[in-house]
């Protein structure tokens, strides 16, 4: 089979590889039919992530089930499924608590598309992908939701959902502040779209990139250009930091009102990042960071797409055919969706 491989900064190529096989009764083999770039992919292909090449790329996908193990009951060959980007067993203590990003049945930080750092599971820009826990991982694509629309559901859309949805449930109608700017910048846009879909009275979206600001405006958010992060941007019950800038993180935390929630969706690859701890302490701010628990939130994300309350196509900036993926992944702006020909 072929898989798209990151070879080095600015260099990706299709390579031949042995096709995976089912090695356990609970596994499945799937054929990705729509793959979306993650914001992390923009960092990877530029050589800015600490993941040594070569390795297969891609971890956001909708796929067709090709083959299942003897004990798999939830899917069958021919089903179209959303694939979480993290392998998770569904049965360990963390999985039972919904903390599927911390599954103990797989190596820590397991995920597709980042090579050995993710446990060596391969990438989804490939002809065949092995899913180790089919019943626990795969979610059937709802009728009426296209593979392209749901391609990012298993990671970046889920990541945007977790930054706002639980807190809007606690405080319906709350205003939301979003700080964008990290990588390709789709996660903060998904956060803005989902917040508005779930009834936020206002979403203020700050980002240095004019194209993302225009997307935010079309989504219904209030766009604000920024060249550097101020000390604070007001006071909000819900704040989202997705700018991967320590000054922006401090700004988001200072802009979180007393008792509010601030979620960082950024990955800080470097050392320690300073936080305004005294102000956070005095206001009782709750700060959330970490990888999204993809499989846990995926059904809620798909329900939003099925109900057409969120339209991911508004955030998709480029599309490419499968055969053009190598060139497309080096030149996209915010969200690229790669589709296999029927």
Commentary on this structure:
With 342 residues, the chain is α/β, with parallel strands linked by helices. The protein has two domains: 2-151 and 311-339, Quinone Oxidoreductase, Chain A, domain 1 (Alpha-Beta Complex), CATH 3.90.180; 156-288, Rossmann fold (3-Layer(aba) Sandwich). Helices cover 27% and strands 24% of the residues. The strands form three sheets. Strands 3, 5, 6, 7, 8, 15 and 16 form a seven-stranded mixed β-sheet that branches. The protein is globular. The two termini are 18 Å apart. The mean pLDDT is 97.
Lay out the secondary structure.
Layout: E1 2-8, E2 11-16, E3 28-36, H1 39-45, E4 55-56, E5 60-68, E6 80-83, H2 93-96, E7 129-131, H3 134-137, E8 139-140, H4 147-150, H5 153-170, E9 176-179, H6 186-197, E10 203-207, H7 210-219, E11 222-225, E12 236-241, H8 246-254, E13 256-264, H9 277-283, E14 286-288, H10 294-306, E15 318-321, H11 325-328, E16 336-339
Parallel strand pairs: 9-10, 9-12, 10-11, 12-13, 13-14, 15-16
Antiparallel strand pairs: 1-2, 1-4, 3-5, 3-7, 3-16, 5-6, 6-8
Helix pairs in contact: 5-6, 5-10, 6-7
């Amino acid at each position: 089979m072929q898989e798209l491989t990151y070879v080095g900064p600015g260099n990706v190529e299709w390579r031949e590889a042995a096709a995976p096989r089912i090695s356990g009764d609970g596994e499945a083999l799937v054929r990705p039919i729509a793959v979306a770039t993650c914001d992390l992919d923009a960092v990877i292909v530029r050589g800015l992530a600490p993941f040594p090449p070569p390795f297969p790329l891609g971890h956001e996908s909708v796929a067709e089930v090709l083959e299942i193990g003897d004990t798999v009951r939830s899917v069958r060959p021919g089903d179209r499924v959303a694939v979480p980007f993290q392998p998770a067993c569904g049965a360990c203590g963390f999985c039972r608590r919904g903390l599927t990003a911390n599954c103990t049945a797989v190596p820590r930080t397991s995920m597709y598309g980042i090579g050995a750092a993710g446990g060596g599971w391969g990438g989804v820009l490939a002809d065949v992908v092995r899913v180790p826990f089919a019943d626990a991982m795969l979610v059937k694509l709802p009728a009426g939701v296209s593979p392209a629309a749901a391609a990012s559901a298993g990671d970046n859309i889920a990541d945007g959902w977790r930054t706002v949805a639980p807190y809007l449930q606690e405080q319906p109608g709350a205003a939301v502040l979003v700080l964008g700017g990290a990588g390709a910048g789709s996660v903060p846009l998904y956060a803005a779209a989902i917040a508005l879909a779930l009834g936020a009275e206002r979403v203020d979206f700050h980002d240095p990139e004019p194209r993302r600001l225009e997307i935010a405006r079309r989504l219904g958010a209030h766009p604000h250009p920024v060249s550097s992060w101020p000390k604070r941007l007001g006071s909000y019950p819900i704040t989202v930091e997705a700018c991967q800038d320590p000054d922006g993180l401090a700004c988001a935390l200072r802009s979180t009102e007393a008792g509010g929630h601030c979620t960082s969706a950024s990955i800080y690859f470097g050392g320690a990042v300073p936080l305004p701890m005294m102000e956070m302490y005095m206001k009782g701010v709750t700060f959330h960071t970490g990888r999204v628990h993809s499989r846990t939130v995926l059904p809620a994300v798909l329900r939003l797409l099925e109900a057409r309350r969120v339209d991911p196509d508004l955030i998709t900036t480029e599309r490419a055919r499968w055969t053009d993926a190598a060139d497309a992944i080096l030149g996209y702006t915010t969200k690229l969706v790669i589709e296999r020909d029927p």
